[in-house]
Design brief:
Blueprint (H helix, E strand, L loop, with lengths): L2 H14 L2 H8 L3 H15 L4 E3 L4 E3 L1 H27 L5 E7 L1 H18 L3 E7 L6 H4 L3 E5 L9 E8 L1 E5 L1 H7 L13 E3 L9 E5 L2 E5 L3 E4 L3 H9 L4 E5 H10 L3 E2 L9 E7 L7 H23 L26 H4 L4 H11 L2
Parallel strand pairs: 3-4, 3-5, 8-11, 8-12
Antiparallel strand pairs: 1-2, 5-14, 6-14, 7-12, 7-13, 9-10
């Protein structure tokens, strides 16, 4: 008899604990199922199942064999599905879930370019700032912050890294002063997410090692875009993702602070329910995402990025992935001449 088929039959008998049940599930006769198991035992020279009139149970050899055979069959099925998937065009609805702010600020261009490449696929995008169960909620792909991933039943792949940036408006800094160390945040009203979403205590890495502070919130919100709006209104010092405020930093509407210190990174991850039976639409979208963000990272590394010493002069770090702008006229008037000279010199490097 076919050895692979005998292995499949044995796994089904072990799972169901019954020759009759396995026969019904596989659309075979009980005699054929019994023969498959008997042939395996004869080939191996050992008993795999203990049989009584009431029940079946695995022998010690049977348990060890079952574990290895199950992996072999899963791997074989995965290879077959990979070959089949590569011979099919991506089609159908592709359900995608992503964090709200990341989705609004970063996802549209990559979805647009994917849809142009694969017109038979219809992207269906959901934005959500919460833990997402991809399997239970029927999503094909998740683009999620690492802290939202808790399930062992999904496959994950790193996509890109998010950075948190301390910032404020030039007008706010002119009125209230510029914090230069994390401890200085204690003297400023801060704009941050609630504690359960990463707010409250902040851990900075800097020249003197780790610094922990608990800024006092002037106002809290569970959405970073709302915090950005508060920051632009000059309501305090905000801690926001770099991909959200890159344009604000480039235009001078916001100024990056604490340039010598860094907050923990947030890994942005691709997640999907299983490597098995991966549809072409999912496989191609994952490949497209990775390609898109790899190219974005290459462009950022190739860009000429200047760092200026004084935060009011528009300090940017390379991690913000934007170029240093010219100083707005109303800000420039408030910056000391020596600082302006250094900024001009740096911009000519």
């Amino acid at each position: 008899m076919n050895q692979l088929q005998s292995m499949r039959v044995f796994v089904k008998v072990a799972d169901l604990g019954s020759f009759v049940g396995a026969a019904g599930a596989l659309d075979l006769s009980t005699a054929v199922v019994t023969r498959h198991v008997a042939d395996l035992e004869a080939r191996l020279g050992t008993r795999l199942l203990n049989r009584t009139t009431r029940r079946l149970s695995l022998t010690e050899s049977g348990r060890a064999y079952l574990e290895r055979v199950r992996h072999i069959l899963d791997d074989l099925e995965g290879v077959e599905q990979m070959v089949v998937a590569r011979n099919h065009e991506p089609v159908g609805t592709l359900r995608i879930v992503a964090p709200v702010v990341f989705g609004l600020n970063s996802l549209a261009p990559v979805v647009q370019s994917y849809a142009a490449r694969y017109p038979a696929v219809v992207p269906d995008v959901t934005l959500a700032d919460r833990h997402v169960d991809l399997v239970e909620e029927g999503f094909d792909v998740g683009i999620l912050a690492a802290r939202h991933m808790r399930s062992a039943s999904i496959v994950t792949r790193r996509l890109t890294t998010g950075y948190l940036t301390v910032c404020a408006t030039p007008a706010y800094l002119a009125l209230h002063g510029t914090p230069t160390r994390p401890e200085h945040l204690l003297k400023h009203p801060c704009l941050s997410r609630p504690a359960e979403q990463g707010g409250e205590e902040r851990v900075f890495s800097g020249p003197d090692g780790e610094v922990r502070v608990r800024p006092v919130n002037a106002i809290a919100a569970n959405n970073s875009e709302m915090l950005r709006q508060f920051a632009l209104l000059g309501m305090g010092v905000a801690i926001l993702p770099s991909y959200l405020i890159g344009r604000d930093l480039a235009s001078g509407r916001l100024v990056r602070l604490l340039g010598d210190y860094r907050l923990p990174q947030v890994e942005i991850t691709i997640a999907y329910p299983s490597r098995m039976h991966l549809p072409a639409k999912v496989r191609t979208f994952i490949d497209h995402l990775v390609e898109h963000y790899q190219q974005a990272g290459d462009h950022a590394r190739d860009a000429r990025i200047v760092t200026v010493a004084n935060p009011v002069a528009g300090v940017l770090a390379e991690r913000d992935e934007v170029a240093v702008p010219a100083l707005p006229r109303e800000v420039a008037r408030r910056v000391p001449k020596a600082v302006r000279a250094r900024a001009v010199a740096a911009s000519q490097v």
